[in-house]
Design brief:
By secondary structure, the chain is mainly beta. The protein folds into two domains: about 20-180, Galactose-binding domain-like (Jelly Rolls); about 185-355 and about 375-385, Jelly Rolls, CATH 2.60.120.1190. Helix content is about 10%, strand content about 35%. The protein is elongated, with a radius of gyration of 26 Å.
């Protein structure tokens, strides 16, 4: 039974991991009390007992009816209500309400800013909508609750809601936060930002990391992993796309991805534009490189995927790149412009992967280390077809599972034969050191 449970864990843990905002709209617990008062704080309070942050629960009348900061609010105020969540969470919407207090309240937040923090980001970032605006419209009275859905999900462990106003005024507010637990494999993605040209702004405006010299985005997440896919006509709806304009005859775009943990990757999917009439086309080739461990460099075993150009249909589409079960803590995707295309546009990424069942010391002996430079050098790399069989370690797992099941459910004579065959295979297989043996778990 234990062996059957192991097999179930091995198979059931594989999943396609992408943000799905349709399933990410639950209230997180301000109104219900699931978020405890100890996790709600504020920059200041007019009166800690009657208008402290513990009274900032939407549709709830406690104390004097809401949280009220000590100071009046204007366009440059920095008062905040802070909510700490138990784990990294995808935030999809914010709901606000003023202080009603059974008809005695007169204060409400006409607008607010949203700032967020998570451990992998290491700093406070500010939410911006698809038009690059930071100010979110709030309330116009003390009684009504207003729900504001964000343009894309943001990943946060701690939130700060900061009321602002064009004119100086007293503000009080109650809130609810909507979202879901973040279960995605991505820690960050890093790349050169998109292009602004011909009146089109195709930059990653929601990227919450930092920008280095030369428009290189580093250390954050943004449009490529926010749960929103672009529409066919990118000129009419550019805000959901990140786009790069061709800058040379053999132009390419490189996206470096860091995972939250070591993953066993089985596919990568990219949502891309093929709007040929405005010069956009799906990439004609993708080259994938993998870094199997934090202490190693990139493996020389890359995957080269070629896409057959589609000149008939201009719809945006998901392009899935199969991966023959490659271990990675980091991954590099290089996309090459299609012949004759002026633009390459991507709006979203998703991955099929599992958290690896191998111990941290395990490395595949075929993964000899190389240093990946800014461009892939085809002369120094061995190309593998996408349809290649899984590597030795995958066969090793399969044999172990089959042997485990056989010992429980098959006649003993057959089990003995299987054991003898396994011993023979072990003698003919490359020797693995004891510290390289995988440690299995269901996590």
């Amino acid at each position: 039974m234990l062996r059957l449970f192991f097999l179930f864990c091995l198979l059931a843990s594989r999943s396609g991991l992408a943000l799905d905002l349709k399933e990410c709209n639950r209230p997180l617990g301000m109104e219900s009390g699931r978020i405890p008062a100890s996790k709600i704080s504020a920059s200041s309070s007019f009166d800690e007992e009657s208008t402290g942050p513990q009274h900032a629960r939407i549709r709830t009348e406690t104390g004097s009816g809401a949280w009220c900061p000590l100071n009046q609010i204007n366009a440059t105020s920095s008062e905040w209500l802070q909510i700490e969540l138990p784990v990294d969470t995808v935030i999809s919407a914010i709901e606000t309400q003023g202080r009603f207090d059974n008809g005695r309240g007169m204060e409400y937040p006409p607008a607010f800013l949203l700032e967020f923090w998570r451990p992998s980001l290491g700093r406070w970032a500010r939410y911006r909508d698809r038009h690059n605006n930071e100010i979110i419209e709030g309330n116009s009275d003390t009684r009504s609750a207003v729900l504001r859905v964000l343009d894309g999900g943001v990943v946060a462990k701690t939130l700060r809601i900061m009321p602002v106003s064009e004119v100086t005024r007293t503000v009080c507010m109650r809130v609810e936060v909507y979202g879901c637990t973040y279960r995605g494999p991505l820690k960050t993605y890093n790349m050169f930002d998109g292009t602004v040209a011909d009146g089109l702004d195709l930059r990653d405006s929601s990227y919450d990391g930092s920008a280095r010299v030369g428009r290189y985005l580093h250390g954050g997440l943004g449009k490529l992993y926010d749960g929103v896919t672009g529409e066919d006509n990118f000129e009419k709806h550019p805000h959901k796309w990140i786009g790069w304009r061709r800058e040379g005859p053999s132009a390419s775009v490189v996206i470096n991805i860091e995972f939250t943990s070591r993953r066993n990757i089985s596919s990568v999917s990219l949502h891309t534009s093929n709007f040929n009439r405005y010069g956009a086309a799906v990439f004609d080739k993708a080259v994938l490189s993998f870094r199997p461990a934090v202490t190693s460099r990139f493996s020389p075993r890359i995957i080269e995927f070629e896409y057959v150009a589609d000149k008939n249909f201009e719809t945006a589409r998901w392009v899935r790149i199969p991966v023959p079960d490659r271990l990675a803590v980091e991954m590099r995707i290089e996309l090459f412009f299609a012949s004759g295309a002026e633009w390459l546009l991507v709006s979203e990424m998703r991955f099929e992967s599992t958290k690896t069942a191998f111990g941290p010391m395990y490395t595949d002996p075929l993964d000899e280390e190389i240093q990946i430079e800014q461009r892939v050098n085809s002369n120094s790399l061995t190309y593998f077809a996408v349809g290649d069989a899984s590597e030795d370690y995958s066969r090793w797992i399969s044999l172990g599972v089959i042997a485990a099941l056989s010992s429980d459910s098959l006649p003993s004579a057959f089990s003995s034969t299987s054991s003898a065959a396994a011993e023979s295979r072990a003698k003919n297989s490359p020797r693995r050191s004891s510290r390289s043996r995988p440690e299995f778990s269901c996590s």
